[in-house]
Amino acid sequence: MKKIALFISLLGLISLDLNAQEYTVITSVESIVPSGLGRSRLISSLEAKDYQEFTSVQSEEDNTRNKSKRDEIRVKNFEETKLLNFFNIGGIRFQNIAANDAIITSKINAMVSEGWELAFVTSGVESDGGKGDGQGIFITRYIFKR
Question: Which residue from 48, 60, 86, 89 lies 20 to 30 Å from 17 (Cα-Cα)?
Fold first, then answer.
């Protein structure tokens, strides 16, 4: 009976360990600024931050704010992989898009080989807002878990 209880306890510990998951985010920022003047990068943080250190509760009764300094929030240790801009002086560059795809694929494959699984992908665009804007980025977040 003791052996059965020990075996069940060990199974419980193993299942707890298997359920623990860790997440990380890789972000690609690709410039859609005309004439190729923007900067495009693949960004990976090399340090962790605890969101609770920078979170405050807001209420009508207590309207004090967490006065965390921006320098404390900033991550100073990160990987920055150069990507090519979507546009150059001649317009959209499909070769640049293919090159970026190859680099991003390489990063995803490296993450998978390190035991990460691509769980979610989300993207968004801030594009040219009309005459005189000339700004824009295409941002994609790759969320991995293990």
Answer: 48
